[in-house]
Design a protein that fits this description.
The complex is a heterodimer of chains A (293) and B (284).
Chain A lengths: L7 E5 L3 H12 L3 E5 L3 H20 L5 H10 E4 L10 E4 L5 H12 L7 E4 L6 H5 L8 E6 L8 E6 L5 H13 L3 E4 L8 H17 L5 H12 L5 H8 L1 H15 L8 H8 L23
Parallel strand pairs in A: 1-2, 1-4, 2-3, 4-5, 5-6, 7-8
Antiparallel strand pairs in A: 6-7
Helix pairs in contact in A: 1-2, 2-3, 7-10, 9-10, 10-11
Chain B lengths: L2 E5 L3 H12 L3 E5 L3 H20 L7 H7 L1 E4 L10 E4 L5 H12 L7 E4 L6 H5 L8 E6 L8 E6 L5 H13 L3 E6 L6 H17 L5 H12 L5 H8 L1 H15 L8 H8 L19
Parallel strand pairs in B: 1-2, 1-4, 2-3, 4-5, 5-6, 7-8
Antiparallel strand pairs in B: 6-7
Helix pairs in contact in B: 1-2, 7-10
Classes of the chains: A alpha/beta (293), B alpha/beta (284).
Chain lengths: 293, 284
């Protein structure tokens, strides 16, 4: 396996995560091509990247020269063929095993034999996704936290067939971006979601059971445990619909009731109380800030 | 509210006594021997000294605090206090005995609170006369640094008892949260399953101890990793806490993981014994 320096990165999927991951690679000095299936999606990703870079410039975190260089290193495309020259392809498309698996199948015919493949799944099996590729030994799970440019943590997850060299090269690449890497087993939820999701569900069930109200539980958790945000404030930020999807995905795979989304989540989604982005969740918000989805 | 009676001058008792005295309240603290009273005074002195050494506590404060604290071995001395907080050993029989004796000395309307972390407050209330004046007041360790206090409402308590405990907690600059009297109250009910899960996941090889800590610190903003927290709490303390709740509820989230039992059996109890779970050799 080639140990050549990584220069060209292709990110597939221009949503929040894909754009965020593209920014982290750009800031690491790499050439980045952001790919999605139509102009509209690509345009949204481009807006997100430009906005982030403009804010970094105005906050003085980036010089004019660095800003111009970053802009010049990023390209946009609606064709997967643009991943042809990539040293690393990072997949951040819709959280669906079949979709991700098919994508890696298509990349087989496009990419060089020594290309490294990263899948940014949060709840799915890296092994199952890698099985869509004829080169599963080159596929590694890399789970970024949202927002990717700001969060230091990346979970690196070897699939059953991942080659040690591919895992080492992936870890070195992500660490070169200034991130901290933790190695997790390929089990549903890896470390962060596997520990967070059942805790949040426990908090929701404590609320349902009338042990205490929303504000009380948030205050207890932040003051006694030192967590930066109470569970309900966090659920509102993440979005109840996203929590439901993550929770259900984990429950479907694990059959452990702690992972099952409690009835209150379903009820809130039915009422449209999706959290901060809807202006209402466990709390009400004056401004409908879209964040976290 | 002027004078607070505190039963037990151990580490929790000392923290509570210190907090009351810092808030300008007079404190009468009862224990079984002069040695234990002396040890409690010493613990407060050491806490202030370490705070002062780090520039966090005014060195002059200790003198004022000490002047407000009176130790006694005679429960009759507590007859005139406005509120009693029990902080003796976490054992129902010991607490029952102390509570019954003290209730006979104080007035019928004097509010009595237990600082239990795991026992049923409703059951403890049955050991005092006029149980409607009884409630739970769960402080976290160290009490001087942890702002949260769980005010636990047993079935028998009347509204004025709960209101008195909330007002007292605010008076000593704590943040009270009123919770139902259910095993683990609120914080331990939420924390213990997370810790049990972390032990089991670690034993199942999800990640190294260091990577578990990095993941929750950087990914979730938690102040420390779950296994490091367990070593700080004490693995025997955690095993006891989760066992009591499991015995009461049969809730599988509270079943003690096998690795936890093994570590306690081996005498690896965490920080206090110099070895615990976070320093197990890896890979095992």
């Amino acid at each position: 396996m080639s140990e050549e320096v990584i220069q060209n990165v292709a990110v597939i999927g221009a949503g929040t995560m894909g754009s965020g991951i593209a920014i982290t690679s750009l800031l690491g000095g790499h050439n980045v091509c952001l790919v999605d299936i139509d102009d509209q999606r690509v345009e949204l990703g481009k807006e997100q990247i430009n906005k982030f870079l403009a804010r970094s410039l105005s906050l003085g975190k980036m010089s004019d020269a660095d800003h111009a260089a970053a802009i010049s290193r990023v390209s946009y495309s609606t064709s997967l063929k643009s991943a042809r020259d990539a040293d690393v392809v990072i997949e951040a498309v819709f959280e669906d095993t079949e979709v991700k698996r098919a994508l890696f199948g298509e990349l087989d015919a496009i990419c060089r034999a020594d290309t490294l493949f990263h899948t940014n799944t949060s709840t799915l099996s890296v092994t199952a996704i890698a099985a869509g590729s004829t080169r599963p030994e080159r596929v590694v799970g890399t789970h970024y936290c949202n927002p990717a440019p700001l969060m230091k943590l990346v979970e690196v997850v070897p699939g059953r067939r991942s080659a040690d060299a591919a895992v080492r090269r992936s870890t070195a690449y992500i660490e070169s971006l200034g991130k901290s890497v933790v190695m997790a087993k390929d089990v549903p939820g890896f470390i962060v979601n596997r520990l967070l999701v059942p805790f949040e569900n426990d908090c929701i069930r404590a609320l349902e059971a009338g042990r205490a109200d929303v504000e009380t539980i948030d205050a207890a958790v932040t003051l006694a445990l030192g967590y930066p945000m109470g569970p309900f404030r966090l659920l509102d930020t993440v979005g109840l619909d996203i929590h439901y999807a993550v929770s259900m995905s984990l429950f479907t795979q694990l059959h452990n009731p702690r992972f099952a989304p409690p009835p209150l989540v379903t009820q809130m989604i039915a009422a449209g109380d999706l959290g901060r982005k809807a202006g209402r969740g466990f709390y009400t918000y004056e401004q409908k800030l879209a964040f976290g989805a | 509210m002027q004078t607070i009676g505190v039963l037990g001058f151990g580490s929790m008792g000392a923290g509570i006594v210190d907090l009351c005295a810092r808030a300008g309240l007079s404190v009468l603290v009862l224990d079984q021997s002069q040695e234990r009273l002396d040890a409690g005074h010493r613990a407060i002195g050491e806490f202030h000294a370490s705070g002062a050494a780090r520039g966090l506590t005014d060195p002059a404060l200790l003198e004022q605090v000490t002047a407000r604290i009176t130790g006694t071995l005679d429960p009759a001395d507590l007859a005139g206090v406005d509120l009693v907080i029990e902080a003796v050993t976490e054992d129902e029989r010991i607490k029952a005995d102390v509570l019954t004796r003290i209730a006979a000395h104080v007035s019928d309307v004097c509010v009595i609170a237990s600082n239990t972390s795991g026992l049923s407050v409703t059951r403890l209330a049955t050991y005092v006369s006029h149980p409607e004046r009884f409630g739970g007041l769960h402080f976290f360790n160290p009490a001087q640094l942890m702002r949260l206090v769980e005010v636990v409402r047993p079935i028998q308590a009347d509204e004025s008892t709960v209101a008195t405990l909330v007002a007292f907690a605010e008076r000593i600059e704590r943040h009270p949260v009123v919770v139902k009297d259910r095993p683990g109250f609120l914080v331990n009910h939420l924390l213990i399953p997370y810790l049990n899960q972390a032990i089991q996941e670690y034993d199942d090889g999800l990640a190294t101890c260091a990577d578990l800590a990095t993941a929750v610190k950087l990914g979730l903003g938690y102040p420390m990793g779950p296994l490091q927290l367990l070593d700080r709490i004490g693995l025997d303390t955690h095993l006891h806490a989760t066992g009591v709740i499991h015995a009461d509820t049969a809730d599988p989230r509270f079943a003690a993981p096998v690795l936890l039992r093994e570590l306690v059996a081996a005498g690896r109890l965490g920080r206090k014994t110099g070895s615990g779970i976070s320093d197990l050799e890896e890979p095992r």
